[in-house]
Amino acid sequence: MNYKNYKVLSYLLSAPMVALYVTIIFSLLSPIGLGSIDVFSSIVIGLVFLVLIPMSSVYYFNKKDIEVRKKEERTKLYLISIVSYLTCSAIFWILNSHIMFVISMAYVFVSSAVSVINIFWKISAHSAGVAGPTTALVYVFGLNLIPLYILTLIVFWIRLKIKAHNILQLITGTIVAIFITSLVYTILW
Questions:
Q1: Is the pLDDT of residue 164 over 60?
Q2: Which ranges of 30-166 would DSSP assign to H, the alpha helix?
Q3: Is 79:115 a contact under the CB 8 Å cutoff?
Q4: Most exposed of 27, 34, 42, 67 (fewest Cβ within 10 Å)?
Q5: Average pLDDT over residues 61-65
Q6: Residue 30 domain boundaries
């Protein structure tokens, strides 16, 4: 596989893209319903606040690529994402969509932790962006989804191949996301 193919896979497994997949899955298959909104509205709200705003801020500030390699350039992007995730959480709270509120809050807390760590040390948002939502899916739908963690290993492989992270950065992103997402779901679910 060549570098361009790795970049495409990295994009498809980026935090905003995984947020899109999780938004669709939770909106279509929620075991507890969506509160006072319909499936389409749930997907649109998630798309705007969990995917488009975070992703468009990366493109706006880093015009050439979605890849932001320097940790110093990431802080403003994390802050924009956190505000967007908080807005999303508030909207889902108001609309009584518990399943979407909790996943949005998980994004708030994982992104906040990654942002703080990023001030001192580069951490993998890609591995966090797969491991966190996978943890949410396992929590909501059961242990039969544990094999989805293989996606995190694929992210490790890709991010190492394109030299975006070292193994410690990838492992730390994964552990932080799993721990915080588990904590959020334990408290809020």
A1: yes
A2: 39-46, 53-61, 75-94, 98-120, 125-141, 150-161
A3: yes
A4: 67
A5: 65
A6: 3-188
d(CA 153, CA 51): 22
pTM recorded for the entire structure: 0.93
Angle between helices 15-29 and 39-46 (to 10 degrees): 170
- Could you tell me the two tokens for 11? 């994009």
**Average pLDDT over every residue of 97-125:** 97
Determine the length of the chain.
Answer: 189
| pLDDT, average across residues 71-83 | 88
Q: Which residues contact 33 (CB under 8 A, 6 or more apart)?
A: 99
- What percent of the chain stands above pLDDT 70? 95
CA of 100: how far to CAs of 23, 155, 165, 173, 179, in Å? 8, 25, 30, 23, 19
Q: Name the nearest CA neighbour of 38 among 104, 96, 107, 108.
A: 96
